[in-house]
Amino acid sequence: MIDYKAFIEDNFQIKTKEGKVVPFIFNDTQNFYYNLLLKDYPDLEGVRENLLKFRQWGGSSLIDGIFATDFIFSEQGRIPLTDTDIVSHKDKETLVLFDRFNFFIDSWLAKNSLSRRSFLEIDSTGHLKGKRGAEAWIQTANARVSGRGGTKQNIHWSEVGFYSNTEVLNAEDLVTAAEQQVADSVGKIFRESTGNLSGDFFSNEYERGKLGEGEFNSRFLGWWTHKEYMRIAPPDWVIPPQYQKLIEEQGISKDQCYWHYRKMLSAKDKKKIRREYPMDDTEAFLMSGELYFDSEAIIYYENQIKKPINEKLIYV
After folding, report:
1. Among 4, 27, 36, 138, whose CB has the most other CB atoms within 10 angstroms?
2. 198: helix, strand or coil
3. Domains assigned to the chain
4. How many helices (H) does the chain have, and how many strands (E)?
5. Residue 149, pLDDT above cutoff 80
6. In whole angstroms, how far apart are CA 225 and each of 49, 93, 131, 259, 299?
7. pLDDT at 275
8. In Å, how far are 35, 37, 121 from 118, measured between CA atoms?
């Protein structure tokens, strides 16, 4: 069994938002999510995740760090060969993911005094292939991505909620067809995104996972899991009801609530900010597109609902 956290923190470097190169040490949210994964998949095999998340906590870095570890271990013959797809929603983000994956590989190579030429057979933009045969493809979602043939072990759908839904490219067809290349109970598939449209492919799949339908687990990561997101609240700040509810249900601090409150207050596009830092998984899908009922009204009435003493699914 691979200790991914130990390997990543010992061998990989990462660039911070300030442009500094530092060891890739998991932050509090990465630790939180990684431990959730280990609870459900002790050896991180057969991972199937619908991850509804907030912005800028390093979710893609965590997932692709795990995939880069698999690439290295399979090239060393310590695990079976892996064929990996990492897919983003637009070209600019694809380049970011590709550069970061390369940065992980390069930091491990440097630590072990190895050259890329000695390790890689194919080293081109968007495609890496090791001497032993492990492969990694980093691409933008389009009609040419992956396919129905061949086999894959790892797939990361980055911001899948924002993939196109046209006659040329349909997110559901693209994702479900490519995922058939991954055998049951094998490898890792992450569908990771902030919320977008209610009723689109990702929101429907997220709801299915919540109901226990299909093989994917659905998780919502709230912005309050990231302890960096806090701002000292003034003593006279009156906590709005929606934040009081969060304090009671999630045990978060007043200063964390004040950070979100100030972010909302200063935002020009409040709907976009609420989508990227939602209060719950319902709000995440209500801040885009046109709804029959007003999204603000839906959120208001939802906040009036008291949390039940107990809840469970009843089949009749």
Report:
1. 138
2. coil
3. 4-221 (3.40.50.300), 224-303 (no CATH)
4. 12, 10
5. no
6. 18, 24, 40, 13, 21
7. 87
8. 35, 34, 8
